[in-house]
Amino acid sequence: MTGNLFVVSLRLILVSGKTQDFVFSPNDSATDIAKHVFDNWPLGWEEEQVSSPNILRLIFQGRFLHGNVTLGALKLPPGRTTVMHLVARETLPEPNSHGQRNREKTTESNCCLLL
Length: 115
What we know:
By secondary structure, this protein is mainly β. Helices cover 9% and strands 23% of the residues. A five-stranded mixed β-sheet has the order 2-1-5-3-4, with helices on one face.
């Protein structure tokens, strides 16, 4: 696989700040990547080990990647290592939810109430 010109180099970063480099195909999806990382969990990441690949999520440029998104669809720059965050999360936020779902309203909110 390393001799192939059509590979994508990813550097995955955990919340703890630990990193690991991986090589994937442009046809690999976010789900494929999560499964590969789970099956080949790096030495030194033992404290962050998760129980299932189904809760591993990739974040690229501040957005969660949904399972069927391929690396090729992201139009990543060839020949460079792309950095993504890897987090454990049961569900993904709904598109355009802006993180407001399941959030309790408090008096300290920065939002305005329009009547």
